[in-house]
Specification:
The chain is an alpha+beta fold. The chain folds into three domains: 16-154; 161-265, Neutral Protease, domain 2, CATH 1.10.390; 272-436, no CATH class. The protein is built from 15 helices and 20 strands. It has helices at 4-15, 82-88, 90-93, 105-108, 188-206, 249-253, 257-264, 275-290, 294-305, 321-342, 349-358, 369-377, 384-395, 401-408, 433-436; strands at 19-27, 30-39, 45-46, 53-58, 61-62, 72-80, 101-103, 111-112, 120-126, 132-135, 138-139, 144-147, 157-160, 162-166, 174-180, 213-221, 229-232, 238-244, 410-411, 418-419. An eight-stranded mixed beta sheet has the order 5-4-6-2-1-9-12-11, with helices on one face. Strands 14-15-16-18-17 form a five-stranded mixed beta sheet, covered by helices on one side. It is globular and about 80 Å long. The termini are far apart.
Length: 450
């Protein structure tokens, strides 16, 4: 009996998912990283940005990451030149503003060359009083954590003089706005209200914010508008949005770019050949959720989707701008209409996306397209999304856009469309939530081009 218990405990430890533990200290000369990797981490370690790694040791002995032997577990120490890495990466994550260093934890946290499929990482970060660390990873009382297999591809984080504001958003565990401590043309409350409003709008449509934890990193730039943003997922979620230091309150009131990026949170990371589905959903819902004028919305949608009509070949793998954004939007619009017509108004795209969210399909995970569409279709009792993908994505089937709009009761001209309630599908025409009483309350954003 005395021999059995240790054996059972050893088996239980071997069966338990491993945890990679990291402790990071910010210093002016760079990051000091200590990694404690469990047994089974194998031979060889990698980081996302090896050119900025200095002074590597494994179990106290200087070595190269590629030569590290962590089969029985190991302790790795290294220094990472954060300033140099963020200067080089500014084309990807944007230039630093207000002393903010934007970085990916996967760039400086060593991981096994052959990452295990299971297991988690636990990250603790120490900074001086004037430096804040902000990340869109799942936060714990001790620090941050997430799936170990996704760490290398995780979302950006930031170091620097940041103010962190928690924002109340339905269905979210934690939404944090990170804003550098530099003057803006508007009070910070305007920025907080803008992010809260747009995140709430998206959350209402999806039945809750698609991701449990979100960091919105607002980076001031020398402009008077909101020029662009980007969404990053896998293991966590971070939205980067660039805010003009001289932007007036109207720029935040009329903005649509943040809403576009927030919608991206509602789909898993798909293979690159299906990027048109990701951008198409963001394009369609960004317009639908932001509208408070139905005629103006349909005038914009009709003009937009005409730029994305299939050209006799599938949209899978397309790199053309019109097909990526507006061809994708046409796919989701047609899915929304078909679901409404087939169910006599009982189901819509909203039901499909809410079911996808409930199944865990969001930007923090990487799913194949088949799994994504099957999970969403399960919310409608139909196979519309799969069938439309075969038509759009695989074959590039022709679309009678004029006939579709006519059945919906939409007559196009320059500017707002003319809408008819007598058309056969008029009752199933998707309407802005702000006009349907199921969320929103938006200010209409002006027509735009991408």
């Amino acid at each position: 009996m005395n021999d059995v218990l240790p054996a059972l405990l050893a088996l239980a430890a071997a069966a338990a998912p491993p945890t990679w533990r990291y402790e990071v200290t910010w210093r002016p000369e760079g990051l000091a990283v200590v990694a404690r990797l469990p047994a089974g981490s194998g031979r060889g370690l990698t980081v996302g940005a090896p050119g900025f790694v200095r002074q590597v040791s494994v179990d106290g002995a200087p070595t190269a990451l590629a030569d590290a032997d962590c089969r029985r577990g190991c302790v790795v120490r290294l220094r990472f030149d954060l300033a140099a890495s963020t200067d080089e990466a500014r084309g990807f994550v944007g230039p630093a503003r207000g002393g903010i260093q934007v970085t990916r934890p996967g760039d400086w946290l060593p991981v096994p060359a052959r990452a295990p499929r299971d297991g988690t990482f636990a990250l603790t970060v120490h900074t001086p009083a004037k430096v804040t660390f902000a990340a869109g990873l799942e936060q714990t009382p001790e620090g941050w954590r997430g799936p170990a297999s996704l760490l290398a591809d995780g979302p950006p984080a930031a170091f620097g003089p940041l103010d962190l504001a928690p924002l109340p958003v339905p269905g979210a565990r934690r939404v944090t706005l990170a804003l550098p401590r530099i003057p803006l043309a508007v009070p910070r409350s305007v920025v907080e209200a803008w992010v809260t409003r747009e995140a709430t709008r998206v959350a209402r449509y999806f039945g809750g914010l698609p991701v449990p934890d979100l960091l919105v990193l607002a980076l001031p730039v020398d402009r008077d508008d909101i020029p662009f943003g980007s969404a990053h997922g896998l293991g966590g979620a971070t939205l980067q949005v660039y805010v003009g230091k001289d932007a007036p309150a109207e720029a935040f009131r009329d903005d649509w770019k943040l809403r576009h990026e927030l919608v991206h949170l509602g789909l898993p990371n798909l293979p690159p050949r299906h990027r048109w589905m990701e951008e198409g959903l963001a394009t369609y819902l960004e317009a639908l959720l932001g509208a408070d004028d139905e005629a103006a919305l349909w005038g914009e949608l009709a003009e937009g989707v005409a730029q994305g009509l299939p050209r006799g070949e599938g949209l899978d793998g397309t790199r053309r701008w019109g097909e990526t954004y507006w061809g994708g939007a046409l796919y989701w619009l047609m899915a929304d209409v078909e679901l409404r017509v087939a169910s006599h108004g009982a189901k819509s795209l909203q039901d499909a996306l809410q079911t996808l969210r409930a199944a865990g399909g969001n930007m923090t995970v990487r799913w194949p397209l088949a799994r994504t569409l099957a999970a969403a279709d399960a919310g409608t009792g139909q196979h519309v999304l799969n069938e439309l993908h075969r038509a759009f994505g695989e074959r590039g089937a022709p679309v009678d856009l004029e006939g579709l709009l006519k059945r919906l009761g939409v007559a196009t001209s320059r500017g707002p469309a003319k809408l008819s309630a007598a058309a056969p599908w008029a009752p199933y025409r998707p309407r802005p939530p702000a006009l349907s009483g199921d969320g929103g309350g938006a200010t209409r954003s002006p027509a735009r081009s991408r």
